[in-house]
C-alpha cells in the first residue's frame, strides 16, 4: 500500500529519474536540488508540482559546461527521430562497408562545439546522419541501430516515474558488488514462490546487504492483516528500498525492525526470568511448611532491620544537632526523594524506539511465524538454527546465498533433522531476448548467476 493519494511530485518523496536505460533513485528535498546523471549535472526543482510520469527536456545552461535545467515537454517535443528517416534508401548488406574511422565528416571538436553552443540533440543527430558517408548504404536494421545509439548518447529527455519493486531491483542489481549484493528480479520472484507467500501471514526475515529490497517486496505484497519481522545482523538497518516505496504509515506499522543481537539478548533474558519464576513457584508449592518458617524468618529480619534503622536514626539526629550543614544536606536529600516519588507518569522516561520494536518482535515470535527468509552476507547456519524454532509446522523456509557452498553445509545439516522435508537447492538462469519481426536477438552479455536458493518445509516430528 503505497502513497498514491497525490499524483503530484512533492518534496520528501522518492522518485526515479530515467534517461533511456539509465535510472537513478532520488529523494526530493529543498536542500538537494541537483542530481548527477552520468557526467551531467541537472537541476530538478522544476519537477515539483508536476504529475508523476511527466517527461522533461534538458536545457543547457549558458556559460556552464554540462549543466542543465528541466522544462516540461509536450507531445511535439517527443517525436522520434528514427521515424523521420524511414523513407531513406538503404543497402542490402554491410559487406562493402569498411570501418576505418573516416566515414564521419564531422570531427569530435566540431561536435563538442555544437553541444557547448546549446544545439538541440535532435539537430546534432541530423547533422551526424547527413555527414556520414556510409549511412545510405547500410541495411535498414543497421540504420536503426545507428540512430538508437546516437539517441542514447545525445538523448535530451528525462522522465520522472514512481518507484516499483521491478525498478528498484534493477537499480540495486546494477550497482557494484562492494556497495550492494544485487539480487536479480527473477531470483526475487523465485524466492516469493518458494516461500508460498500469503498476504495475511506473519513472516520472519533476516536481511543484510541487499538495501532492503527483500523486505520491500514482502511488505508490498502484505494485506492489512499481515506482519513482517525484519531482523538485521549488522548495526545499521538497511531499509533504503522500503523507504523508496513511499509506503503509508499504516503499512509501515506492519513492519518491525530489530537487530539480531538485541533480539537474542532479550530472548535469553526472558528465558532466564521464566526459569526463575517457575522454580520459585515450585518451591512454594512443594514445601508449604518451610514457607511458613521462611515467612517467620523474614518477619524477624524485618523487625531487626527496623530496630537498626531506629538506632541509626537516633545517632544521626545527635550528629545533625551538632552540625547544621549536614542537616541541610539531609533535608535536601529527603526533599529530592519525595519529589521523585511524586512525579507523574507523564514525566517518566520513554523507552527508545528500538527497545519497543524489540519487545514487539518477541511478542510476535512467541506465537510463531508462517515462514522464514534468510538473505544476508553472513554464514546462514547459525542464524537458521537460532530462528528455526519460531516457525509453525507445515510452513516453508527459504535461504538465499550468493554462493553455493554455505547452502550445501546447511543442506547436509538440515537433512539429518526429522522435522524438515522437501529440501532442495535451486539456481535460476535468466537471459532477455529482443523479439523483432522475423528475427530475435538474445542478449550476449548477461550475468551467469544471481545466487542460489535453499528451500524446504518444517513439519511435526513423531
UniProtKB/TrEMBL annotation:
It holds the Pfam family Gcd10p. It comes from the Eukaryota. InterPro entries: TRM6. Its main location: nucleus. Keywords: Nucleus, tRNA processing. One of its GO terms (biological process) is tRNA methylation. GO terms for cellular component: nucleus; tRNA (m1A) methyltransferase complex. It is found in: Nucleus. Belongs to the TRM6/GCD10 family. This is tRNA (adenine(58)-N(1))-methyltransferase non-catalytic subunit TRM6. The lineage of its organism: Eukaryota, Metazoa, Ecdysozoa, Arthropoda, Hexapoda.
Amino acid at each position: 500500500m503505497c502513497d498514491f493519494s497525490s499524483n503530484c511530485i512533492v518534496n520528501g518523496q522518492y522518485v526515479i529519474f530515467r534517461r533511456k536505460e539509465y535510472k537513478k533513485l532520488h529523494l526530493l528535498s529543498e536542500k538537494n536540488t541537483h542530481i548527477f546523471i552520468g557526467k551531467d549535472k541537472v537541476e530538478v526543482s522544476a519537477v515539483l508540482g508536476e504529475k508523476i510520469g511527466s517527461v522533461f527536456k534538458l536545457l543547457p545552461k549558458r556559460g556552464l559546461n554540462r549543466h542543465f535545467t528541466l522544462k516540461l515537454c509536450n507531445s511535439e517535443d517527443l517525436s522520434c527521430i528514427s521515424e523521420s528517416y524511414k523513407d531513406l534508401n538503404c543497402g542490402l548488406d554491410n559487406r562493402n562497408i569498411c570501418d576505418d574511422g573516416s566515414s564521419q565528416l564531422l570531427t569530435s571538436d566540431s561536435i563538442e562545439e555544437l553541444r557547448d553552443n546549446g544545439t538541440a540533440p535532435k539537430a546534432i543527430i541530423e547533422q551526424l546522419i547527413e555527414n556520414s558517408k556510409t549511412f545510405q548504404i547500410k541495411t535498414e536494421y543497421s540504420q536503426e541501430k545507428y540512430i538508437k545509439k546516437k539517441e542514447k548518447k545525445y538523448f535530451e529527455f528525462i522522465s520522472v516515474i514512481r518507484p516499483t519493486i521491478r525498478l528498484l531491483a534493477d537499480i540495486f542489481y546494477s550497482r557494484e558488488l562492494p556497495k550492494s549484493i544485487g539480487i536479480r528480479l527473477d531470483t526475487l520472484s523465485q524466492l516469493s514462490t518458494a516461500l508460498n507467500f500469503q498476504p495475511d501471514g506473519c513472516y520472519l526475515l533476516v536481511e543484510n546487504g541487499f538495501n532492503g529490497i527483500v523486505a520491500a517486496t514482502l511488505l508490498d505484497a502484505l494485506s492489512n492483516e499481515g506482519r513482517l519481522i525484519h531482523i538485521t545482523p549488522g548495526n545499521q538497518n538497511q531499509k533504503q528500498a522500503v523507504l523508496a516505496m513511499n509506503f503509508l504509515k499504516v503499512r509501515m506499522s506492519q513492519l518491525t525492525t530489530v537487530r539480531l543481537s538485541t533480539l537474542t539478548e532479550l530472548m535469553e533474558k526472558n528465558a532466564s526470568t521464566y526459569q526463575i519464576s517457575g522454580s520459585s513457584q515450585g518451591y512454594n508449592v512443594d514445601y508449604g511448611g518451610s514457607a511458613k518458617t521462611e515467612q517467620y524468618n523474614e518477619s524477624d529480619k524485618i523487625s531487626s532491620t527496623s530496630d537498626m534503622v531506629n538506632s541509626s536514626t537516633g545517632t544521626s539526629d545527635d550528629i545533625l544537632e551538632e552540625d547544621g550543614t549536614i542537616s541541610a544536606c539531609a533535608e535536601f536529600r529527603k526533599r529530592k526523594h519525595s519529589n521523585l516519588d511524586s512525579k507523574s507518569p507523564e514525566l517518566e522516561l520513554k523507552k527508545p524506539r528500538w527497545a519497543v520494536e524489540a519487545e514487539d518482535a518477541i511478542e510476535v515470535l512467541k506465537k510463531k511465524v508462517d515462514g522464514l527468509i534468510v538473505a544476508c552476507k553472513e554464514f546462514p547456519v547459525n542464524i537458521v538454527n537460532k530462528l528455526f524454532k519460531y516457525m509453525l509446522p507445515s510452513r516453508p523456509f527459504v535461504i538465499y546465498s550468493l554462493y553455493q557452498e554455505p547452502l550445501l553445509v546447511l543442506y547436509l545439516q538440515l537433512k539429518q533433522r526429522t522435522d524438515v522435508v522437501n529440501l532442495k537447492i535451486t539456481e535460476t538462469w535468466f537471459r532477455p531476448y529482443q523479439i523483432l519481426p522475423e528475427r530475435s536477438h538474445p542478449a550476449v552479455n548477461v550475468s551467469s548467476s544471481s545466487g542460489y536458493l535453499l528451500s524446504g518445509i518444517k513439519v511435526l516430528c513423531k
